[in-house]
Write a structure and sequence with these properties.
Chain C: One of its GO terms (biological process) is spore germination. The complex is a heterotrimer of chains A (499), B (373) and C (367). Chain A has 499 residues and is of the alpha+beta class. Chain A is built from 15 helices and twelve strands. In chain A, the strands form three sheets. In chain A, strands 1-2-4-5-3 form a five-stranded antiparallel sheet, sandwiched between helices. Chain B is built from twelve helices and 14 strands. In chain B, helix 9 crosses helix 12 and helix 10 packs across helix 11. Chain C has 367 residues and is mainly alpha-helical. Chain C has a single domain, classed as Amino acid/polyamine transporter I (Up-down Bundle), CATH 1.20.1740. In chain C, helix 3 packs antiparallel against helix 12, helix 3 crosses helix 16 and helix 4 runs antiparallel to helix 5. Chain C is globular and about 70 Å long. Chain C starts with 10 loop residues before the first helix and ends with a helix. Classes of the chains: A alpha+beta (499), B alpha/beta (373), C mainly alpha (367). Chains B and C meet through helix 1, helix 7 and helix 10 of B and helix 6 and helix 15 of C.
Chain lengths: 499, 373, 367
């Protein structure tokens, strides 16, 4: 059994006493106002010793305590041995109060036995937990329908199901003074470049906060450029995505109590990928990827483009469109920029309203948005038809993007570009794009270039970014992750005569 | 310290940027004339005319016409602004209408300078000469036809796509005026019976003086000589060899050409330019009103048609030489192949060309005769 | 004195920077300049100009081979003492400033002519400096990546020019050598300015990942530039009549005015806006090189402070003074001489000096 804390370096005050009464007094002193703590006195039948079992109500599996701890201890079972006769999977010997306390609050039950200078930390964890469900934000058509849960160990188990190999290594760190969150860094030893590992670990160790409630918080602490609009790390809800990323030489960070897993390092193009790309045929997957890139530009640039055309460069509009556009613009009392801002803000309001509301009410929001705003506003002559089309197009485009964080970034970029377009037309638009490109090129994710494979250009990596070539042609892992072992496969497909 | 400098600079830059958007002009605030018309009145006074669409569904009439007199087009801008709600922009012209009367005087081309000099003006607007007065056309507004600019543009584009007129853009006009080896040409329209009609192609001299007009058939031939005929044009001729039953022209044969090859051989001998032009076309018969056994006797028909085409070509050339114009651009060939000789005479090329020795011969091959024998 | 680890650039990035800074603004009026001197034979001069630029480029690479792990200034310090390095750094800083300023001014003038006629120059200048600062700030690698990416995303532009061939008059190119060789030789002068920018190798060389490819790089870069110029020039010549081709200030843009698509009436408006990317390929790399020179003089690793000062200087300076088209043309004419000396004559002389000094040393040691 593991005995992972040596007795020598524990200060006296923190040491668990051999006297049960003393321990009980200490417990009562330490845990005041803790009504959810259950203290149970018992006599171990085997040895006849007095014992004390404490656990936090609700964090434990009651059936396990009854069946696997209390019953074996109170009934005569097995031979008379040194070890206690509990039938839980994992028992740890702890000598210090500090460690014991951590274990207690993580859902272990502590067994103190009179005359023993240690406590047995019994793994009887079992807290309220939802079932494994389809991931909400990243649902897939053909992929698995399992999403991560709020329990770190289970999440790791879900990943391991995809990678049953001892190469998958896990480095465990504790973060947070009060929260004591277990953060596990997962990587495949012979693929992942250790410099990312080292960087991740260093950055996570640097975090000194009360608690990490969610993966998103961790993200903010370890991102390379916290001022950027772009997400520089991916959080995913999908074990299969995580496994696939691990195989590409990236690291995953599992944060206990959070249903999101962090992937690092990533590139800008990673945000356009989806696990379904690999399970559908490569032609359609390529088409979808191109569509997403197109959608990204639409979502970011379309309203700005509309503004600059209508208020600066209307000479480029073909004649017939000019007449239609002019007619629909003619009755609107606002300049295009104000019109666009109004509609875009309405769109954002509708979106936010829809997210928080329960599903039946959410539908009402859709109806109100669609009919009242969409139609009435045009009929009242407040907004032009063209603008409604532009906004609708923008909204649809932004829904296509698979990653929520990227969509959020695009929303903000859209507003910046709209301002630039309303001041300088196409010139503003190009300057915006130039700055955007410059910004993406300068970004880094865990020290690797965020823009690969398009800036710096890595032709080999383009195979699985904007397009997806057939899987049997992707013989190498992406160069951008600098993997230790770069061959992914060799000749995985038999070439048969076509006759 | 350095980051605070950056921030202050950024702030100043943003403030400066926000303070300026002087080039903004919203579509609905602009008046975008689609037709620019120019003409002289009886007292030789320069008038300009504009038609702009009206962006409102409360007003029934979809366009507004403006007119006025001015010394130059650019000067007319203030006159234009005074007549409309928006600021007038020359960015969306679809057609430029020239009054026939204006073409009696040299120098009208210089008046167009603003079209080329103001970079924001379009140069793809079609140049059209109106046989008659421009205002009459502008105020025609027939209820059963689309807006004038759409009508004119559409007419010129579709007619020129089967080579029956030319689609000269403002930019092309510039080239024709500047290139010493060619004289300008553009399409011509006229109001006939209350309807706008394309008449053909107007020919003007290098100085811009109106010289004459080509009808649809002649324009097709011109475009063949320019190597610019789009496949699919159709020609019809009356063959004198065949019987004619009055009042119907039953001796007519019509054909549409597929592939046309034009070879122009240029030489300079005895102080005269000599052109030897060979045209060969592969045609499909679309109509022959007289009985003819095309199946067995196609060679004879080919020769007859070829003879007709050759005659018409030569008549056309004679017309050019008489009018002293060179819409084919034979001067360009002269420059390319007889540079030294051309260089000496380039400034009155049209005159020299009228003395030149030009022969055209056409060869017709019948490729198909339709489903009826 | 600099370490180049982690600041390396690839061969393609090297080519992109050189070709990009050569083409950028110079391409706009090159066909006009050539036709002013040699009419429609101007394109022949391009080939001669290309041969000359190859000699100069190879000389530059040849010089750098004497000191592969440092810039020109390190080399000069090594061979002649630090004063020579500092002098050269100051000279080149001025030269890079000249190139950059010319690029910026021309960009603004073109933008003002075609897109935003009444917007103030200093506003446009500040606008252009925003992306420039955000790219240059992160050093040579970022600049190189930017140049590379822009080259990739600009590859579609030539295809649009092919579209103008619908109105081409190939017969305009004839006769060849219409006035003999003399006008063509005078037109070679016009090809010097559009080839300027090779001198950046003096500073880029130590950053190059595989130095053995430097020769290949300069040959490819100059050839790409030449082919592009040839393509554009011939397009302009067959499109405009010979009388017109010296009439349009920026024929490369004017050509586009006549293209009509069904879905977009005037292609040149989005085009000139997109051209800003290509124009930026002169001022962004030059801004880096200039700040590098200044940082080198003060023995600093970081270019942060000179860069900020430069940006402020440009923004504020433009507020008070901005050149007109004529002054810009005058600047370009002067740039021809400066460029000729610094990019063509100086490297060749330096190469001779280095070769001779090595030769003497060997002579002496063999004695």
């Amino acid at each position: 059994m593991p005995d992972n804390n040596t007795e020598q370096n524990i200060p006296h005050s923190d040491r668990i006493s051999a006297d049960l009464k003393e321990n009980l007094a200490k417990i009562q002193r330490l845990f005041t106002e803790t009504p959810d703590m259950v203290t149970r006195h018992l006599t171990i039948k085997q040895s006849g010793k007095q014992a004390l079992l404490i656990y936090i109500d609700g964090l434990n599996d009651k059936a396990a305590i009854n069946e696997n701890v209390l019953r074996p201890l109170q009934q005569e079972m097995g031979e008379n041995s040194q070890e206690i006769a509990v039938t839980v999977g994992h028992v740890e010997h702890l000598y210090s109060w500090e460690k014991a306390e951590i274990g207690l609050f993580q859902g272990n039950s502590l067994l103190f036995i009179d005359g023993s200078e240690r406590t047995y930390s019994l793994d009887t964890k079992g807290w309220p937990q939802r079932n494994i469900e389809d991931p909400q934000l990243e649902s897939s058509l053909k992929g698995a329908h399992q999403g991560f849960l709020e329990t770190g160990d289970l999440n790791i188990a879900l990943i391991r199901r995809y990678l049953p190999h001892r190469g998958l290594k896990i480095k465990r760190l504790m973060v947070g003074e009060r929260g004591q969150t277990t953060v596990s860094i997962l990587y495949i030893e012979d693929i992942a470049n250790e410099k990312y590992m080292a960087k991740l670990e260093q950055r996570i160790r640097q975090i000194n906060v009360d608690a990490i409630i969610n993966t998103g918080e961790l993200c903010e602490f370890i991102e390379d450029n916290p001022f950027s609009l772009f997400p520089q790390l991916i959080t995913t809800e999908r074990p299969d995505t995580t496994a696939s990323q691990l195989l590409q030489g990236r690291c995953a960070v599992v944060v206990d109590r959070s249903p999101n897993v962090l992937i690092a390092p990533v590139t800008f193009m990673s945000f356009f990928q989806n696990i379904d790309d690999y399970s559908s045929r490569w032609t359609i997957a390529t088409f979808l990827r191109l569509l997403r890139v197109f959608a990204f530009f639409m979502a970011a640039f379309l309203p700005a483009f509309y503004i600059s055309v209508v208020s600066y460069h209307f000479e480029i509009i073909p004649l017939k469109l000019l007449l239609t556009l002019g007619e629909s613009r003619g009755q609107v009392p606002f300049p295009p920029f104000v019109e666009a801002i109004l509609m875009e803000i309405t769109l954002e309001l509708l979106r936010e309203a829809g997210i928080r509301l329960p599903a039946p009410v959410g539908q009402t929001v859709g109806i109100v948005g669609g009919i009242v705003i969409g139609q009435a506003v045009v009929q009242a002559g407040l907004i032009s038809n063209a603008m409604v089309i532009v906004v609708a197009f923008t909204a649809i485009s932004s829904f296509i993007l698979p990653n929520y964080d990227m969509v959020a970034a695009v929303r903000l970029i859209r507003f910046i570009l709209m301002i630039l377009a309303s001041m300088f037309g196409f010139v503003g638009l190009v300057i915006g794009l130039m700055t955007l490109i410059g910004h993406i090129l300068s970004l880094k994710s865990l020290g690797t270039a965020y823009g690969t494979p398009i800036g710096p250009v890595r032709l080999a990596d383009l195979k699985d970014t904007i397009v997806r070539v057939p899987l049997w042609l992707m013989d190498k892992r992406p160069l951008s992750t600098a993997p230790k072992q770069s061959i992914r496969q060799r000749q995985s497909r038999i070439k048969e005569d076509t006759e | 310290m350095s980051s605070s400098i950056t921030r202050i600079t950024l702030f100043i830059v943003i403030m400066l940027l926000l303070s300026s958007c002087s080039d903004q002009l919203n579509l609905e605030n602009a008046t975008t004339p689609l037709v620019l018309g120019m003409d002289l009145d009886k007292n030789k006074k320069f008038h300009f005319y504009l038609t702009a669409p009206v962006f409102s569904n409360r007003i029934k009439k979809k366009s507004i016409e403006m007119t006025g007199t001015a010394k130059t087009l650019r000067q007319s801008r203030s006159e234009q602004d005074a007549q409309t709600a928006g600021s007038t922009q020359g960015r969306n012209y679809q057609v430029i209408l020239l009054g026939r009367r204006m073409l009696n005087y040299e120098g009208w081309f210089q008046m167009l300078d603003v079209i080329y000099r103001d970079a924001r003006n379009t140069v793809t607007d079609r140049v059209i000469v109106v046989d008659g007065s421009v205002p009459e056309m502008l105020y025609l507004n027939p209820p059963d036809q689309p807006m004038l600019p759409i009508l004119l543009r559409g007419m010129v584009d579709s007619t020129s796509s089967h080579s029956e007129t030319v689609s000269t853009t403002a930019h092309e006009l510039h080239r024709q005026f500047l290139d010493k080896g060619i004289t300008p040409y553009f399409s011509q329209v006229k109001i006939i019976g209350g309807k706008v009609r394309i008449q053909g192609t107007a020919l003007v001299s290098k100085a811009g003086i109106y010289k004459g007009m080509l009808d649809a058939q002649e324009t097709v031939l011109l475009r063949i000589l320019q190597k610019n005929a789009s496949p699919g044009f159709s020609l019809s001729y009356q063959l004198p060899e065949e019987p004619k039953k009055s009042p119907f022209s039953t001796n007519t044969v019509s054909f549409s050409a597929g592939k046309v090859k034009t070879k122009i051989k240029t030489s300079f001998k005895n102080n005269r330019f000599k052109y030897d032009i060979k045209v060969s076309m592969v045609v499909g018969l679309s109509e022959h009103l007289f009985p003819f056994d095309v199946f067995n006797d196609s060679k004879r028909l080919e020769d007859m048609i070829g003879q007709q085409v050759t005659d018409h070509f030569n008549a056309l050339i004679a017309k050019f030489q008489k009018l002293k114009v060179d819409p084919i651009g034979l001067g360009v060939y002269a420059r390319a192949y007889e540079y030294k000789a051309f260089k000496k005479v380039e400034d009155d090329w049209a005159e020299v060309l009228s003395q030149a020795d030009i022969t055209v011969s056409a060869k017709v091959t019948i490729a198909s005769m339709g489903p009826i024998k | 004195m600099n370490s180049y680890v982690g600041k390396q650039i690839t061969l393609f990035q090297f080519i992109s920077i050189i070709s990009g800074s050569q083409v950028s603004v110079a391409v706009l009026n090159l066909p006009r300049k050539l036709s002013e001197a040699a009419d429609t034979d101007g394109w022949i001069a391009l080939i001669i100009g290309w041969a000359l630029s190859l000699i100069a480029g190879l000389a530059i690479v040849g010089v750098m081979k004497y000191y592969p792990n440092g810039t020109l200034f390190d080399l000069l310090s090594e061979y002649m003492g630090r004063w020579a390095g500092v002098l050269a750094a100051m000279l080149f800083a001025l030269y890079f400033f000249y190139l950059m300023y010319d690029g910026l001014v021309r960009t603004i003038l073109v933008t003002k002519t075609w897109l935003l006629p009444t917007t103030q120059s200093f506003v446009l200048m500040s606008l252009l400096l925003i992306p420039a600062y955000s790219i240059v700030r992160h050093g040579i690698r970022n600049v190189a990546r930017y140049a590379e990416l822009i080259i990739w995303i600009s590859l579609w532009i030539p295809f649009v020019y092919i579209y103008t061939l619908k109105h081409a008059h190939w017969v305009y190119l004839l006769p060849l050598l219409k006035e003999g060789w003399l006008p063509i030789l005078t037109a070679v002068k016009a090809t010097i300015y559009p080839m300027l920018g090779m001198v950046s190798i003096f500073i880029l060389y130590p950053h190059l990942k595989y130095k053995e490819y430097a020769t290949k790089g300069i040959v490819i870069a100059n050839s790409i530039t030449m082919l592009l110029y040839l393509f554009v020039t011939i397009i302009c010549y067959v499109y405009f009549s010979p009388e017109e081709s010296h009439l349009f200030n920026d024929p490369v843009i004017s050509v586009l005015k006549s293209i009509e698509f069904k879905f977009i009436e005037r292609i040149e408006v989005p085009f000139i806006s997109f051209y800003l990317f290509i124009f930026s390929l002169i001022w962004i790399p030059m801004m880096y090189l200039l700040t590098y020179c200044i940082a080198w003089i003060f023995k600093r690793e970081s270019i942060g402070i000179p860069l900020r000062l430069l940006i402020i200087l440009l923004a504020v300076g433009t507020f008070f003074y901005f050149p007109t088209y004529n002054i810009n043309n005058f600047l370009v004419r002067q740039l021809f001489w400066v460029g000729l000396i610094l990019e063509y004559i100086f490297p060749v002389c330096l190469l001779c000096y280095l070769w001779l000094s090595k030769f003497w040393k060997e002579e002496r040691s063999s004695l």
